Amino acid sequence: MKKRGSVTVFIALIFVCISALICALLESARTSSARLYLQTAGDSAIDSLFSRYHRVMWENYRIFALESESDDNIGDLICEYMKPYVKYSGMYRIQNPNVSLNKKICLNDNGGMYLEQEIIDYMKLGTFESIFDGSPDDLWKDIEDAKSMEKITSDYGLSSREAIDVEKALKRLSENIDAQEKIKLKMKEALNTKNLGELKKLSDNLKKKLKKIPELVKKYERKADKMSAKLREIEAKNSSDLDKLSNSNKEYIEGEIEKFKDYVDKDSERRLEVTALSLQSESMITELDNLDCDIESLQSVLDEADEDDDDDYGSEISEGWDRVSDDIYALGEMKLNCKHGIADEDKEDKLKQLKDMIADGVFSLVIPANRTVSDKSIDTLSLPSNAATGGYTGRNLAERLLIDEYMGEYFADFTDDINTPLSYELEYILNGESSDRANLESAVLKLLAIREGLNYMHIIRDSAKMQLATELAAAISGVLCLPQITFIVKFLIIAVWALVESAIDIKGLLSGGKVPVIKGGDDWHTDLDSIFNILSNNDLGNSDEFKRGINYEGYLKMLLYIEDPVKRNFRMMDIMQIDIGVGQKDFLIKDMVYGVDANISCGAKRLFSDISFFAGQFGGLNLGYETEVRVEKIY
Known about the structure:
Blueprint: H1 6-50, H2 55-61, E1 66-67, H3 71-87, E2 94-106, H4 113-123, H5 136-192, H6 196-244, H7 247-307, H8 314-330, H9 345-366, H10 397-410, H11 425-431, H12 436-461, H13 463-477, H14 483-510, E3 514-515, H15 531-537, E4 550-551, H16 552-561, H17 565-580, E5 592-605, H18 612-615, E6 624-634
Helix pairs in contact: 1-3, 4-10, 5-6, 5-7, 5-8, 5-12, 5-14, 6-7, 7-8, 7-14, 9-14, 9-15, 10-16, 11-12, 11-16, 11-17, 12-14, 13-14
């Protein structure tokens, strides 16, 4: 019997090839699906990882962050979350996942810009009312203009005190000269009564006055030189600030500066007359020496006449008195013809004392009576701000406003009166000092500078207030004084008035009141009569009438708006770290992760290419292989 199997063999070979092709296609599909499965597992694992956000960080500050001390910890957690996917991978047969981090982003990276992004993302979800009416940048241009005005006028206000010292030195000279004239009148009276002993005494007194003249002249010269040097120093110091002023303010300040220069020029003319007094005093002392000799000679003659009754000394005595009389009437007349002096030195002194008292002790004056300044302090060595990082990129206006409002919402200030490691958190973000007191003092001084400049501008734009300042300056300087000194005193009055009003503003703010940035007439609290009472009472008065404008927090936010963003961000993180650290001792901002970029690799076994019947057909393939996916996540 003849057998034929060619068709069977042929069909078997075709079946083997088709089966191999199908298994290869299935293996390829399974491999691609295994990679997709691994990607899904990795994405799920990293989502699960980021669900472990720090709960207190969110509850206290609405910031999402993953706490992780090391890269290995992140890798281990991702692997842990992948275990169910590995266990139930089925036909995908993935195993032994391994994680390698490409990048870990922490909240304190790149100047804190990721913290900013979290803040912006959260604040966009709500609504808020900005403290700024209009463009904050335009407002700050006005405020900076006011601050420059305050700085320049404060410096020139101090130089006005130098000019007043010059006037006082001239007044002391004038008082000496007046005293000389009184002595001369008494000498003539003593001459008429032929009281030789009194004449001798008066001559000695007149010499003492004359001997003081060179010293008084030198004192005047020192004061004048100091004033001139001060003026040159102020000109050089404020030239850049002067250029920054708006045209109207610059024009006003330059006009006032010219009055100072005019005063210096006038003083140069007076100086020639004053310096001549030293030589005149020496000449008059010589004349008094001659008078003393004639008095001694006359006294000798009188003594001899008393001892010898027989001799006739009448003509000799008469000649002696004639010589003394001629000496007295021949004495030179010292004059100070130039205008000089201050009429009301007491009030002028009070102005200077008031300025010094507020400038040096404003902090104690503005703290409300019912509040005690916190004495809390912190150790700043381990805080994030000591390891600030770069790479910061700026924000637009809307984002800057969102960050500004966030700080006011989540950080306390003096008026909140809370009990945290630092009670004045906004003040710390603004200044970065280690104690509540230092931060509050710095904040008060910054606010004082702003308010002083703005209040100064209010005064010079208010014709009624300028008229009052001019009248007081005229009363202090006196009608006989140089017109220039009246302008100089007015400069000091305006500076002190603005300073007093600013201190009262800050006390009102710290008491929970409000103060408008640009004041109207109804918002003004002081007058020129009442400011002198502060000096005697050492008290700025009550602060109950501050109902319109911006509160203390608002002013701090204004200052924070222009604060260096990197410093601001890291100081926010400082506060977060010390506050959360109360309940969690090992809490560190540097461990707060914002984003992760990682590669996940897994081993896998082939399935369809491992079927024994076809294994020989895929002898060139390894039974195990490795696949890798990339996962990324940020909050």
